[in-house]
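As a representative case, we now present a protein record of this kind.
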Amino acid sequence: MSRQFVPHDYQLDAKRHVQANARCALFMPMGGGKTVTTLTALDELAAVDDIYPVLVLAPLRVARSTWPDEIAKWAHLQHLQVSTITGDVKAREAALAVDADIYTTNYEQLPWLVERFGEHWPFKTVIADELTRLKSFRLKQGSKRAAALGKVAHSKVDRFIGLTGTPAPNGLKDTWGQLWFLDKGQRLGKSFTAFAARWFYTGRDGFSLKPYANAQGDIQGRIQDICQTVTGLPVDEPMRNRIYVDMPRDARRAYDEMEAQMYTEIEGIGVEAPLAIVKTMKCLQLANGAAYVGEGSDEWTVTHDAKIEALQSVVEEANGAPVLVAYHFKSDLARLREAFPQGRVLDADPQTIRDWNNGDIPVLFAHPASAGHGLNLADGGHILAFFSVNWNLEEHMQIIERIGPMRQKQAGYDRPVMVHYILARNTVDDTILDRLEGKKSVQEALLEALNRRKGAPAKEAA
């Protein structure tokens, strides 16, 4: 069911910024609503300007799911047609043949897309979601994707909008490549060499670039007219963001079989909550991507990596800001540690907490049961991602409170707490989160989910 969009004041400011500047950037953290804000700004502009078709560049998962889902979510955007250009050549050509307003694709398709159209580039507006993917652009070298886009960015594109959480994940040197797509070097220098010579000096190692003392203020001052940093996010409550992933076909089939058995039995015995909880564990495992097999408790097999990929996007978009990750099963932790070797586990060693609060741990894995009362992690960060959810409301609230708004204020930070829930679409994940947020009983949540899904089997993901 579609929802009515009631923008916050900061979203209204961001919308006006997009409408007033044909080439601009929004520096807004994940969960701040930059997708719906940008789409709303463009849809209003369409009444007075020729802005369609729009090409959205994004990481693969975001291109496939996030943008189409946002258009479907909001009532005022229902009239927009969206087509996703991913997959093999045949699938991409089929997507291009669709008469759509919004086309979404992943950055990896840029060289093919630019070559495919040549001089007949059709997209009047380009949105670069996660703009930092273009930071490596250089006039003569740099990444192939950014170079391909550079061929059309100024000669064929009327509007260019960059979206990111933070523009300089690895320092100020990252800003030049991104800003070039907005002004072709007008503000920061016609080439990276000129940019580097003006605001940086060579480090002691002979090749690293170190910014002069005045560099940050200078650079910010030069780009502030076309780059808006959103600072007006509410801080009294966490910003909650649901990130949905689609399970691959085989994993989806296994999940549906398990869920059908669970619901059939629940319905037959009148929903006995303790039994339901035991059975939901298998569904949770399948939703996360690894199910325990056999009679022992140590054997598990991977069914999909959709949630791992989504968490990678969260960490990337955090742009260097530490991320606290909540997990539930031991299999989750093992897979997370393999996927994020830079991560650490919250353990009993006090030094781990000190390292986190000192900013020395980029990704911290924590089981909600180990993050109980009194633990303060607010100095270390303000971003929490739930890789997995579980029924325990107290543990859920406690781990949020470790970096919560009140602790942020007590620590002297005026920054929003971002809580991302990574959920497998049409699974028990939603049922559990609805129960946690609505404080319903386990039995009530399961019955409601059952009634919703009767006669409406989940759609398979390709």
Q: What stands out?
A: The radius of gyration is 23 Å. The chain has two domains: 9-229, 235-462.
